[in-house]
Every structure is written in C-alpha cells, then in structure tokens.
Amino acid sequence: MLSSGKMNRIYDSVEPRVMDDDILKLAVGEQGPQEEAGQLAKQEDILFKDVLSLQLDFQNILRIDNLWQFENLQKLQLDNNIIERIEGLENLTQLVWLDLSFNNIKVIEGLDTLVNLEDLSLFNNRISKIDSLDALVKLQVLSLGNNQIDNMLNIIYLRQFKCLRTLSLSGNPITQTEAYKMFIYAHLPDLVYLDFRRIDDHMKELAEMKYQYSIDELKHQEHLRQAQLEEEQAWRVKLEEYKMAFVEHLNGSFLFDSMYAEDVEGSKLSCLPIVSKLLEVYKDKFVIICLNIFDYGLKQQEKRKLELNTFNECVQEAIQENQEQGKLRIARFEEMHLLNLSAIREESELLIIEKKIVECSEDISALFNVLMTLEMQLVEQLEEAINMFERNITDMVDMFIENVQSLMAQCRDLENHHHEKLLEISISTLEKIIKGELDEELPDDVRALFADKDTIVNAVGASHDIHLLKIDNREDELVTRINSWCTHLVDKIHKDEVMRNRKRVKEISQYIDHMQSELDNLECGDMD
Amino acid sequence: MEVLKEKVEEEEAAEREEAAERAERVEKTRPAEVQKEEATLTQEMLRDLGKQLLEIQMPTPAEPPIVTKDTVDISNLPLSYKTNTLKEEHLLQVANNFSRQYSHLCPDRVPLFLQPLNECEVPKFVSTTIRPTLMPYPDLYNWDGCANFVSNFLTRVPLPDPLKPPSHLYSSTTVLKHQKGNCFDFSTLLCSMLLGAGYDAYCVNGYGSQALCNMDLTREVCPLTVTPKETVKKKEKAQPKKYTIKPPRDLTSRFEQEQEIKKQKEAKAQEEKRWWEEEEEHLLEAERAKPDPLHGLRVHCWVLVLLGKREVPESFFIDPFTGRSYSIQDDHFLGIESLWNHRNYWINMQDCRNCCKDLVFDLGDSVRWEYMLLGTDKPHLSLTEEEDEGMNDDNDTEDLDKENQDKSFDMPSSWVEQIDISPEGLCQCVFSAFSRTIPGLQEAFETHCLNGKKVLHYRRAQLEKWAPYLNSNGLVCRLTTYEDLECTKILEIKEWYQNREDMLELKHINNSTSLHTDYFRPGHPRALHVHSYKSMEPENDRVMEFYETARVDGLIKWEETPRTMTQYYQGRPDFLSYRHINFGPRFKKLTLTSTESNPRPILKITERFSRNPAKPADEDVAERVFLISEERIQLRYHCRDDYITASKREFLQRSEVDSKGNKIIMTSDVCISFEVEPMEHTKKLLYQYETMMHLKNEEKLSKHQAWESELEVLEILKLREEEEEAHILNISIYDTKRNEKSKEYREAMERVMHEEHLRQVEAQLDYLAPFLAQLPPGEKLTRVQAVHLKDACLGDFKQRLIDKANLIQARFEKENQELQKKQQWYQENQVTLTPEDEDLYLSYCSQAMFRIRILEQRLNRHKELAPLKYLALEEKLYKDPRLAEFLKVFA
C-alpha cells in the first residue's frame, strides 16, 4: 500500500533500535507512578513483572525482544515501528490489548498463547490473509485496515469469534468489491461496528436475505461439524470411563476379534463350514462372558468410586471441623491479646509491663500448644481412617481381580473346549480328505494345512496358543493396571495427608513466631 | 325506685332459693361438691345463702338485649316456621310420650329439653331445628373455622334463667339475622354447620361452670399471650459414615459429670415446684374468693364432636361462645342431660358425679344413652357389655322401648330455611380474626353491636376488638397483659392495626422497659419492617429492621445506642455486611447561633465484608477498622480455604518529618503486616503506599456514608411522626362500599345509564310530528285543528295500511301470474324438454310456490292486524297530551 510505504520510509532512514533493558527500563520508569508514589518507585525499582501497561511507540524497533519478564502485562503498544514479524510475545499471556499498527508485518503469527487478548490492532501493515487467530477466543475488536487482504473467504474465517463486535477492514483490496459490506453483514451477524460505523439493522436484514442460501449451507456444515465433535467427545468420555473401570473393549467382541486378528491358521480353518458354525457358537458364548466381565467391572468401579467419595467426604469433614476449632481458638486468643497489648501500651509502670509481657508470651505458647494438640489429634484420627480405607479398597480390588480371573478362566475353558472340537473336526476332515470323501471345495491355502496330521495339529495348536496368549494378556493388563491404580491412590492419600500436616504445622509456627516477634518489638519499643 | 329495686332483689332471692331446692332433686347430674354441701343445707342456710348471693354481683351485662318477639318479624317467615306438618305433629306426639315416660321413670330428673317454641310460638322438636348445611367457603370446612365464625359472628345473650333451658329455640336463620343468641342458638348453628361439613356433631344440653356459661375468660390464659411452642425439630443425626473419624478419647470423669447433672436437675425441679406452688396458690386464692353457689346447676349448651368422621382422632367438646375446643375430660363441663343431632335425641343415663370424666360416648349403648327414635345409624360399640348390663337395666328401659313401636319412624327434615352467610360476613369474621361485624352495612353494625367493640377478659389479660375502619387510626385489636390477677398493673400492650397507609401492623409496648416495638407490613415507603425504640428522640437506643429486598443499599438492620451505630447489610455488590461506628462526645460549639448540624466526632469505624469469591482470600478484606482517633487502620483478610490463620495488616497514618524537615512519604514501619503466605509484591513500599492512599479514600467514604445513614434515620423518624399524626387508612379497590372513588365512579356510571335511558325514551318517534309541522309554529292548537290533526293522522295511517296491503297483494298476484305462465310453457314444451331443463322448472316451481305461500300468509296477517293497529293508534291519539283535552268530548 502506498500510504504505509510512505509512513515507514521515514523510519527506514534511521538506524533500527534494539529492544534492550535500557529502553524497557526507561519506558517503565516514564510510564510508572508519578509524584510521591514515583519517588517510592524510584527508590525500590519496579519489577518488570509488576508492570501492567507498556508503551513503546515511535521507537524504530525492528524486532520484538526481551519482553519475557512482563508476565502480567495487560496492555502493550508497539505501533509506529518497523517490526516485520510478530514474535517474542509467548510469555505475555495476560495481554488484553495489543497494538501493532503501522509496522511492516506480513503474516499473522505468534499469537497462539495470548488467550486473553480482546483488542488487536494490525492497522497499516502488509497482511494479505487473516489467519492464526484461533487461540484468541475472547477477541472483541480487530483492526485490519490498510492491509492487503483481497479474499472474501477471510471473512468466513472470522465467523468462529463469537465475541467479535468491531472490525475494520477499510483500505484493503476486498473493500473494492461491490458486495463487500453486505457480505460481511450477512456472514458476521454478531458484528456491531464495521469500519468504525455502526451497522444498520435494516441493512443487516437485507444482507441476510441476500445471502440466505449460502449462510444456511454454512450453518449446516458448522452444525454437522459441531455434532461430530460432540459425538467424538462423548465417545472419548465413555471410553475413559471404561478405562477407569479397567474393562475397556470388553463390551463386545473386541477381545474375540483380536484373538483371530493375528491368528492366520485359525481364520483359514474357519473357512470350513462346520468350523464356522462352531466358531459362531463359540463367539456368542465368549462375548457373553466378556459382557459379564464388563458389567461386573462397571459395577465394581461404581462401588470403588462411592467408597472413595465417602472417604474423601469424611476426611474433608474432619479437617473442616478441626479448622473451625482452630479458627475459633485463634479468634478468642486474638481478642484477648489485643486487649492485653493495648493495656501494655497504656501502662507506664515498667514492672507491670514486664509482668504483662511475660503473661502475654505465656498465652502465646499456650495457644501454640492448643493448636498443635488439635493438629496432632487430627493426624491420629486421619491416620486411622486412612488405614481403614486402605484395607477396604485393597480388599475390594483383590475381590475384583479374583472374580475377573474366574471369569477369564471360563473364557479359557471355552477356548480349550473349542480347541478340542476344532482338533476333532480337523482330524476328521483330514481323514475325509485322505479318503477323498470331502464334498466341498477348499481353497488351496486351507488345503495346504491338511497336508498331514502333524501340520494340521500344529496349526490348530498354534491358533490355540495365540488365543490363550491374548486372553492371558488381557487379564494381565487388567490386573496390573488396577493394582497400580490402587497403590497410586493409597500413596497419594498418604502423601497428601503428610503435606497437609506439614503445611498446617508451618502455618501455626509462622503465626506464633509473628505474634512473638510483635510482642518482642513492643518490648523493645518500650525499653527505648 | 328504691322500693322497686328491693322488690326485684326479693324476687331474685326467691328465684335462687327455688333453684337451690331444685338442686336437691337433681342428684344424678350434679357433681360431687354440691352434693356434699347439700347434705347439711337447711332452709335457714339457704336463706342466708340467698342474702349472700344478693351481695355478689353477677357479672351479667346490665340488661341484655334479648331477641324478643316484637323484634322478630315473623310475617316474612315461610310457612314451615308457622305450622307443623303431619309428620312433625306425629313426632311431637312421640316426643311428648317419650317425655312423659321419662318423667315417670326418672321423677328426680329435670324435664327434657325436647320441643321448645320457635320464633312463631310453634313447638318444634329440637332435632328438626338443626339444619345440616355445608357452607360454600373453604374457611368454613374445618371445625375450627366454623367455631371461630360462630363465636365471632354472634353476640352472646345470657339465658333468661341460667338454671333452666330456654323456652324458645329460634331457627338459625333468625339467629344469624339478629346476630345474637344464647348458648342453645350458638350450638344449634354450629352443629348445623359441622354436620354439613361431615363431622359427627351433637348439641349437648348439660351443665357448665360459671366461667363457661357467662363466657367469663378471666381465669383462662389468653390464647394470644401464649407463645406458640417452638417446634424444635430435632435434626436427624446423620448416620455416621463409614470413615467418620472417631472423636478423641474423653478423659473427664463420667461419675463427676453425672453428679453435676443430677444436682442441676434437682435444683431445677425445686425451682419449678416452687413456681408451680406459687401459681397454684394464686389460682386457689382467686377461686376461693368467689365460689359459685350455683356450681353444677348452670345450664349450658355446647357441641360434641365424636371421633371417626372427617378423621377426627378423638372426641372433643366445642364451647360455642369462645369457639375453643375442650377435651371431654375438661373441668368446665359438669354434666350432660341429653344430646341430639338432626337424626335423633339421646338422654344420658350415666352418673355425672364426677363431671363428664367418666362418661362413655357410645351412643349405641342403650344402657348409657336412652335414645328416642329407633333405627339410628349409631353402631353399638361395646357388644360385650350389652348383655350383662342390659339385664339389670331392663326394667328401666324396656317400657320406653316399647313405646317406640314405630321402628321405622325417622326424623322429619328440618323446618329451618337454608342457612345462608353472605361472603362479607364471612370475610370480616374469619379472615380478620380479631374483628367481628355484621355482614352488610357499617351503620347497622354500629347501632346493633355494642358500638362495634368487643371486650374479652382473660386471666391477666384483656382483649379488645374493634371492627375495621371503626377507629380512625386503624386499630382493630388491643391486648393488654397485666402483671397481677386484679388487672391493675399493666405489663405490656399489643395493638393490632389494619388498613393503615404506613403499613403499621402491630404495636408492642412493654410497660416495664418502656420499649416500643412497631411491626410493619411490606410496603412502607422506607421499607421499614420492625422499629423498636424507647423514645422518638434521635441518638437513643433504637433498632430498625428493614425489608432488605426493598432497599437498594441492602440494609437489613440498623441499631443505635447513644454512643454507637451499627448497620447490617446483605447482598451488596461491595460485599459489605456490617458497619459499626463509635462516636465520641459532641464538642460544645461556642457559637450557639448557628443551627447547622453539629456532628459527633467519629472515633472508630469497623467494617466487615463477606467473602468475594472473585478475589483470592489474601486480597479480600474481611474486616477493616479505622481507628480515627489513633490514626491507625487495621485490616484483617479472609482466611484461605484450608488455613486457620488470616493475613493482617496495620497502617499508621502519622506523617513524619525527617531531620531536614522533608516529609517522609513512606517508611517500612508504617505498615506492619502478617502474611500467611509471604508474597513479594506486598513487601514493596509502593504497594503499601498505594493501599494506604486507597484506604484513606475509603475512610472518607465510610465517614460520609455514616453521616448519610444518620440523616436518613432522622428522616425516617420525622416520617414516622407525620404518619402517626395523619394515620390515613387504605381502602381496597375491591371494597366497593368504603372506597369513595369507586363509589363515585359507580354512581357516575349509574347516572350515565339513567340519562341514556331517558334519551332513548325521548328519541321514540313522534307520530304527530309531521302533522304538527304543517301547522304554524308557536301557536296553541285549536279544537278544530286538533280534530283535524287527529283525522289527518288516522287517515294517513289508514292509507299506509291500505298501501301495504295493496303492495303485498300486487306481489302475490305477480308471482301467481308468473307461475301460471311457466306452467303453460312447460305443458307446451314438455315433450322437447331435456332432463336438466325439467329439473330447473321443477325447482323454480317449488320456490315460486313457497313465495306465494309466504305472501299469502303475510297478507292474511296484515288483514288481521291492520284494524287492531288502527284502533291502537286512535286510542293513543286520544291519550296524547297534546290532543287529549280537545278530543275528550268526542270520546
């Protein structure tokens, strides 16, 4: 664009500046608190991470740099520089307001972490495509005037920003298009201001009528996509739930199918009509057992959840009650302590003061004892409860494992039974083949299995082994996972309790220290 | 005058003696106490007693306005009131027979109350006077509603003779109309309503205590003073959950605890005993002071509700005067002679020595209850006792039974008209529990009913009730509670108001503490709810409570003592929940001339905030204290969720000056803080400085708000005073009688309607007008002219009638001709016609025939009516005021 070129040429002649500490410090100092507060600020130095707003315009900056310390920055102005790329803003996650107008930016990028951004200005740059804004879900104001956007499809991209109210695109090639405004009215129905003008409701209606078909189609597509996403989400949640119960993929024929997935011989043999019939019966039975395991697993999961919830509730109640007691004690103490302190302050007799101070410190240590006793008591109580819970949950897990194992044994029995039958059939088929009595045509690779007795027995045996291995694997997986879950849970509970205890003890001692030091200060003050 | 009085007294004395004598006869139905006394009674003692009685003032009203015959307008009563049907006659005979048998068999008992006269002096059997009626109001569906209504609606009239049942028993309709009656009238009405509502209710004729008969509640505790027992619902102790932690071991001695509890219990019991004893003494003393010489002789009538129907779990009595229910064991009910409902009549054959306590209300038991009519629906409850006891009493009852040969004889239906209560009467009696008025006009109420006021005396309490709108300040009820039994020392006064514009509902004045408490309904301009105070002067002890939803600032309570002011808030966006201000003594102003307010200096402001969930606990202030005199500010923050200590911060506001005289802005000891979790940025002086600046502003704001709040209270006080003086009453827009506006509107509407009607009458056609118009205007008619006018008018009318007849005739003929033509055409072309044409022809014919027939009918009718119409007009003309005097001669 002509105008932007002109603007930037002025700065081209000057040496580009580097964003170093000095520039930043200077800017922070200038824009920080003034007068009395300013003096204080100077005394102490302002930390970059406390700065909320920063203005760096007309500095001839080429590269954004050194901003990583400004963690809490909310407003950043970098307009009227010669920046070419958006970069170095990753750490500024609290940013709400970003001004990059009058620069030489060509591509929108590097904004993926700025999830809180509401106002973005890229006015007068060299951008040709609206892109990479997906993370900016809170975006309200977008200024893209005087750029090189020339495709209407860019507008459709903006449909995903539900909060977008103000958009400026003036000075772009697309504004030359006749239907530019109508297109935007129709496709961004929540927009209130376009190019700094309020959108007329009547025009909006007209536009909607005009583009009704295309918008309906768009909506339909969006809707479909949404539905699909939701479905996937629901499925994932369900699977997660089953995984938590350690019985995922057991509510159907997954296990059975997986048994035959790697079993070449087995699937070859199933070509035999008798075998396929047998297989069907076998599959049905197998799946029923799988479903049993599945249901049982879900039920057990429910039980474990309930148990855990009860436990958590009880623990929370106990802690809450203990806290209430602690607070009560402290409140009572503070009330008394305040009175004592003011009495000391007003007292003039040194002896009495000393006596009173001693009394006070005795009170403080008494409070310490009380609080610590409370805490120790709670620790003991919780320990008991935790141990009980541990016992119960382990018992539950053990029982679950036992029952699943017995069900798995049924599976194995079924497999063994099937194996025997299969072997029988295979041998009889072999005999038939040898005798040449076989009626049906067999595929070559199947017939190859029936070369001699050893081959067929081996093949059937191999298939059987694979099946058993699959079943065993599934069982092992379940047992290991539930055991590790159980250990983790118990460990976590213990660890949490220890952490809680430490935190509380630290808190108490900190408080007591503070009280004591306050008293000591008072003493010193009085001695003066 | 004096002589007359003496005479009256003598008569009274004689009456009492007679009563006492009669008491000897009544043995069975009298309680034990009287019997004991009676054993030693001699004639002299009786005379003494008579004299003593003279000195006792009977607490009956001076001259009770009894509904005498002359006030009952019997002319409008229906026939059933004035005569008896055959069946009723029969019933009366049966009753007579029954009565004779009874007096023969039980000569020592008083005659039965069977067939009193009604308002038309016709004897009616008591059961037929009961007319079961279900009232169409939901409030009158339950017994308590009915009882309340009866007691509030009717005014008690004492029995003409307190020892005898009345000679007359009026119908409930008459009683309702006059709104007064004795206990029998009360009970009959109440019983009718209860039976209608499905209760198993009976009227009871028996003996009551003096208090009961005279509606003397002075020994009763006023129901309004009894604080409703707080139904403390024991929270169901949650089942201890599986992992509930065990409580720490209790190391205190259980034995010691038990001993302690025992001691406390003993002390409490003793105290209670003492209290009871004192109370008892009081009561006994009070009772001994005026023993009732006629105890057990006073006739009373009340209602018995038996268990069973309407899910009544236990039988009970209702005293119709007060509408209160009593247990059937109650001491006030001393004996029962008989009871009846709309179906039957039963005599009590049981011993009443021990009041009603031993009575068994098994009406099917013919040994205990002698019935009058057979074939009642009362089931026999105790089957086992029937046989052995039936033998003993056979000789008593058998004869009576035999008389009731006509087993299928059932009670004739009631002679009383439908009992009707107007909604207004109900409205004023039931909804406003404290008011009692006549349905209908206020004036009627004021003239008839003791000036719309009712006073009830209770034990240590007096209850006054007024009709709504009677008092100009809206007072409807006043309860005065006394400290002593003699009702001299006022303990507290409660006044209930209604329809006040300032929404004042209840005023409670505690005499001992002189604490006034006003309660308001929602709708006060300042959203006031409760206002308690000792004096209306500002800066005194005072509590104001507000309807918090009606206030923008969320203030719910405002308390003041001479030195402090406390405000409680709820639901504010800044989470302020409490503000407490301590004032110092007011500085004496030297310039007394200025009338400006001289605010008291504020010493301390304490503000508490509820948790703001949007902020972290460490930054959310829970309490801040501005110690203004010490120039200190204390902050206490909220406690974090799993912590027991909270951060604190204290600012010293003293501005210090360093050695060079420069102002030191901030030093590290200005702010002393304790932080639960030490943070870096709060250590900074800048942060502390900013916080302090912010707090200074807040302090100013708080001061300002406190000042504003004080002003507002002053305003409220002023408003209250104005309201007290003005006491305007609100009138519901639905209250058409009292609402002036709606009355005016209604009247205006009526006027408009009336005018409309007049206009319509005027607008009726003047048949003379066209002829009068031909005459020269403004001149009086001459006789010739009048005759001419008449003739012209009649002639014209005649012509019109003839014209009309001709017109119809012409049409008739035309139609006929056309039909004939068509028929001719048809006959000629019959052969060549298509079926469609034929159909068309046929339909035409039927239509034409129809038209011809109608025309014919019209013509005939016109011929019939025309002469009549002519005559009518002629008559009208003769009567027309404009022509009448001229035409008279011709008539």
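Residues 26-41, 56-70, 379-408, 427-450 of chain B have pLDDT under 50 and may be disordered.
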